[in-house]
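Encode chain A's predicted structure.
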Amino acid sequence: MSEEHLERLRQELRRGILVLAVLGSLRQPHYGYSLRKQLQEAGIDIDEGTLYPLVRRLADQGLLSSEWQQGEGRERRYYQLSLEGVVLLESLGSEWQELNKHVSKILEVENGND
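Encoded structure for chain A:
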């Protein structure tokens, strides 16, 4: 398998997980840079060209609320989960836990660790 093909598969795997990670991070208010930094500290590297369009799309879908706040000498747009976003995060989080449990079992069997 080529390195390019492997990288495309990695990106595909990460795509859905990024939505869940962003929603989970936005239980607390963040502006773009602080959100990116929190995700990076949690081990999820995401570039601005991916993060900002994702946040705008989630806000457009009504999953995030936002407001402008003065901070460190300039105004920043802070995002946080809306009520609809909280409900979705709970649902997706449960689904993720269930899928992760089953995939982990499959991987253990494949690795001979049953």
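Residues 7 and 13 are 10 Å apart (CA to CA).
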